[in-house]
Amino acid sequence: MNFMRPVGIIAILLILLVLFAGCGQRVPSRNTTPKNPWGNATLTPQTPGGYTVQTSVIPTTTSPIMQATLVPTQTITTLPVPTYRTPPPVTNITANLTVLDEKTMVFSYNRTAYTYTLENPPLLIDYTLTVPNITKTRVETDPVSGGDRTVSITYPDPVAWFKVTVTDTATKSVLVQTGYGGQYDVSYSKQVWVRYPGDYYIEFSGNRVTANVKFLAPRGT
Fold first, then answer.
1. Hey, which residues does 59 pair with through a beta bridge?
2. How far is it, in rounded angstroms, from Cα 219 to Cα 202?
3. How far apart are the first and last CA of the chain?
4. What's the rounded Cα separation, in Å, for the pair 84 and 191?
5. What's the number of domains the chain is made of?
6. What is the CATH number of the domain that holds 186?
7. Which of 23, 94, 103, 130 makes the best surface tag, with the fewest CB within 10 Å?
8. Is residue 187 part of a domain?
9. Cis ω on the peptide bond leading into residue 132 (within 30° of 0)?
10. In this predicted model, what pLDDT tens digit does every residue of 70-123 receive, in sequence order?
């Protein structure tokens, strides 16, 4: 009996060891990352505690349409004649025009401008210039008598010039540009016609000339 008591104690100890060994077995780990509320974003655990949001970036594609530098509006000297109407004959048109205004302008390397809204074409700008003359005299030998004679030469001032420019304010295009001297002829009088409705900027410039300018349009304009 005394021999069986230690054996029983040893057996009880072995059973307890087996039971404790089973209780200490590691439980398989589970994914502790919380459910992602941001769709395709990932949550990276921080230490200690908390999460950093790392959102995936969708690559952008460069657009083939690029912003361009604006270029000046193309300058035109004439407008095409519309197909739905024919310009009125020039023969008797002046009889139906009335003088809207008349200006006398003196130019010495300066310019002046006016604006006008043309609702009932045409608009006629009729100008006449006064250009000073230059007179030079010289003494030369008379081929007949052999004596001296004085010869006078008179001619328009070579530095005199005049220009009128009619610009469509909406399109910034030049409809008409003409004048006297320089690149133009030496006619003292001209008529400038504007045959299309619109808002116009009319500029006059020149040197050593006096211009008498009349603005005419159809009666009742």
1. none
2. 21
3. 144
4. 26
5. 1
6. 2.60.120.380
7. 23
8. yes
9. no
10. 234 333 334 333 334 444 454 456 668 988 899 999 999 999 999 999 988 999
